[in-house]
Design goal:
The structure is a single chain. The protein is of the alpha/beta class. It has 9 helices and 8 strands. The chain has one domain: Metal-dependent hydrolases (TIM Barrel, Alpha-Beta Barrel). The protein is 41% helix and 17% strand. α8 packs across α9. The structure holds nickel (II) ion. The site of nickel (II) ion has 5 residues, from loops. Nickel (II) ion binds next to loops.
């Protein structure tokens, strides 16, 4: 298989410290044609840009993850704006709300989410949204601002997915779709038109079956494509071809 475009990865994570260069040097031989490496705080946003500048096929997203909301410098928007001016920065992300890990910073998370959406709109960049156990507030904020972007590792219902589509946004699916208990994600994949789907790893996490529990990498997206292909009744290469085009379109990658 080829045309694997990973719309959400974290190769700057310490899980890749031992063999990052070997891994990133070999992925293109496994059919990987593009990767968007996401920041989660200032430090990983800077390292995402550095990584993107080192490899032609890697692009960066810069942003503050909701779990980091209370550990962020006051001038984070200025810092992100400067970083985002780099030509390999294609998105603001990952940003959003996480009420699973952090119930204690809800208001702060909402504030950071909205300010980063405004920055993305100012720069005419799409956003990459993290929403965990916060579907109501996430959708309310998205409906208010109508940004371009993707809801990554989508964990909402098919009903919520319909609202996402109405906003013109994309839905990102990854390893979780292949898990045994993936009923909701399968329902989302069933209703979702292929032209609104992006594939992703969220590596090093979320490796798909049969690699579940191992360190994830972009070549394993082929297993996710196989699962989508089964659900949609098309062949896996078509899924990869279409989702690659979707990713290029959303992030304006030629
Ligand atoms: Ni992520």
């Amino acid at each position: 298989m080829n045309n694997i475009f990973d719309s959400h990865a974290h190769y700057t994570d310490k899980a890749f410290n031992e063999d990052r260069e070997i891994m990133l040097g070999s992925l293109t031989e496994s059919g990987v044609c593009g990767i968007i490496n996401c920041g989660a705080d200032i430090e990983s946003s800077v390292s995402s840009i550095e990584l993107a500048n080192k490899y032609d096929y890697i692009y960066a997203a810069c942003g503050i993850h909701p779990e980091e909301a209370d550990k962020t410098p006051e001038n984070y928007i200025d810092i992100l704006r400067d970083l985002a001016k780099n030509e390999k920065c294609v998105a603001i992300g990952e940003i959003g709300l996480d009420y699973y890990w952090r119930q204690d910073t809800k208001d702060l998370q909402k504030d950071l989410f909205e300010k980063q959406i405004l920055l993305a709109k100012e720069l005419d960049l799409p956003i990459i949204v993290h929403d965990r156990e916060a579907h109501g507030d996430t959708m309310e904020i998205l409906k208010e601002h109508c940004p371009k972007g993707v809801l990554h590792c989508f964990s909402g219902s098919a009903e919520t997915a319909k609202e996402v589509l109405k906003l013109g946004m994309y839905i990102g699916l990854g390893g979780a779709l292949t898990f045994k208990n993936a009923r909701k994600a399968v329902e989302v994949a069933e209703m979702l038109p292929l032209d609104r789907l992006l594939l992703e790893t969220d590596c090093p996490y979320m490796a798909p079956v049969p690699m579940r529990g191992k360190r994830n990498n972009s070549s394993y997206i082929s297993f996710v494509a196989q699962k989508v292909a089964e659900i949609k009744g098309v062949d896996p290469q078509t899924v990869l071809d279409v989702t690659m085009e979707n990713t290029r379109k959303l992030f304006n990658i030629k």
